[in-house]
Write a structure and sequence with these properties.
- With 139 residues, this protein is mainly β.
- The chain has a domain at 8-89 and 120-130: Rieske [2Fe-2S] iron-sulphur domain (Rieske Iron-sulfur Protein, 3-layer Sandwich), CATH 2.102.10.
- Helix content is 14%, strand content 37%.
- It contains 2 helices and 11 strands, in the order E-H-E-E-E-E-E-E-E-H-E-E-E.
- The protein has helices at 14-17, 102-116, and strands at residues 8-13, 23-27, 30-37, 40-45, 59-63, 66-70, 77-79, 85-87, 125-126, 128-131, 134-138.
- It has a 4-stranded antiparallel β-sheet with strand order 2-3-4-9, with no helix packed on it.
- A hairpin with a 2-residue loop joins strand 10 and strand 11 (134-138).
- The protein is elongated.
- Bound molecules: FE2/S2 (inorganic) cluster.
- FE2/S2 (inorganic) cluster binds next to loops.
Length: 139
């Protein structure tokens, strides 16, 4: 979260984020997803605003519209710089279910329908600074 008071806490090395990985860090009960794009580091809470899946297991992409973090569970997308929700969960069951039984297909379709009915919220972002190779987050 943005804030004016707090403590800068080291959470990662900039060099370890250069690969494009999302690092999960838990400090004082705060679960954070730390990542870097084009040499700049960012931090969001590590809980999706839909059903709390770990965003650190998702993906990041630099797009013409900005940095997009995608949840690994149902595909909700977030602005990586602000935590603003860009789109909600994917509404359909996966299309490649040729081998699945009818019962499994119905279950997945029902799960996708219910999942899509759950409201998706923006997620908190945290201020980040880099000091040398240390990535620090304001908590
Ligand atoms: S938990 Fe993230 S999109 Fe559902």
């Amino acid at each position: 979260m943005s804030g004016t008071a707090g403590t800068w806490v080291p959470v990662a090395k900039a060099s370890e984020l250069a690969s494009g990985a999302i690092k999960r860090v838990e400090i004082s009960g705060q679960e954070l997803a730390i990542f870097a794009v084009a040499g700049k580091c960012y931090a969001l809470t590590d809980r999706c605003g839909h059903m709390s899946a770990p965003l650190s297991r998702g993906t990041i992409a630099a797009t013409p519209a900005g940095i997009v973090v995608t949840c690994p569970l149902h595909g909700s997308r977030y602005d990586g710089t602000t935590g603003k929700n860009l789109s909600g969960p994917v509404k359909e069951a996966p299309p490649d279910l040729d081998q699945a039984t009818d019962r499994l297909r119905r279950f997945l379709a029902r799960t996708a329908e219910l999942s899509a009915a759950i409201r998706t919220h923006d997620v908190p972002r945290f201020d980040v600074r880099t000091v040398g190779d240390d990535v620090q987050v304001l908590l």
